[in-house]
Design brief:
Order of helices and strands of chain A: HEHEHEEHH
Largest interface: A-B, 17 and 12 residues
Helix content of chain B: 40-55%
Number of domains of chain B: 1
CATH class of chain A: Alpha Beta
CATH architecture of chain B: 2-Layer Sandwich
Shape of chain B: globular
Distance between the termini of chain B: 33 Å
Radius of gyration of chain B: 12 Å
Structural class of chain B: alpha+beta
Distance between the termini of chain A: 30 Å
Number of helices of chain A: 5
Mean pLDDT of chain A: 95
CATH architecture of chain A: 3-Layer(aba) Sandwich
Number of strands of chain A: 4
Radius of gyration of chain A: 13 Å
Largest sheet of chain A: 4 strands, mixed
Low-confidence stretches of chain A: none
CATH class of chain B: Alpha Beta
Strand content of chain B: 15-25%
Oligomer: heterodimer
CATH topology of chain A: Glutaredoxin
Low-confidence stretches of chain B: none
Strand order of the largest sheet of chain B: 1-2-3
Structural class of chain A: alpha+beta
CATH superfamily of chain B: BolA-like
Mean pLDDT of chain B: 91
Strand content of chain A: 15-25%
CATH topology of chain B: GMP Synthetase, Chain A, domain 3
Chain lengths: ~100, ~80
Amino acid sequence: MDTQEMIKDQVTSNPVVLYMKGNPKFPQCGFSGLAVQILQACGVNNLVTVDVLADPAIREGIKIYSNWPTVPQLYINGEFVGGSDIMRSLYEQGELQKLLEKAVA
Amino acid sequence: MLSAHEVKTYIMQGLACDFVQVQGDDGQHFEAVVVSPAFVGKNMVQQHQLVYQALGDRMRSEIHALSIRTFTPEAWVKADLRV
């Protein structure tokens, strides 16, 4: 399976996937840490995270997959939602919570 | 080392903007506010993609982190009124 197929498989077989640097307990970047905090504040309990630092192919491939040059990247039900700025903005508007509720249902 | 002013110039060269403000003085981390009529009718992902597009390869090589807030001209007027 090539990297793009692997990413597609990851984001479609899990309702909530966050590509980040490090893991939720030890984020390796402030933006990734913020993304995890936002998702935890939303009460997400089915979060799957992928550490891009552990796999150079994923780290480059995810930027191509979404046409988005930075990490973190959030996917809900296979759809690219955005990076940490967009996550924060959607959270403040109450929209992220709605998207996540649908993902859990 | 990249300056906030250079980042601002790159964004303005690549995207027709009404207003751009870039802050950050460590050469790698920047915060940008961008107001452009090109954002009208686009969602947030598409708006940010336009800013990234304007920065091109610099986003991969020189800029470690860029926090972006985008506004359409109309949204910007409303945001200004709230301040």
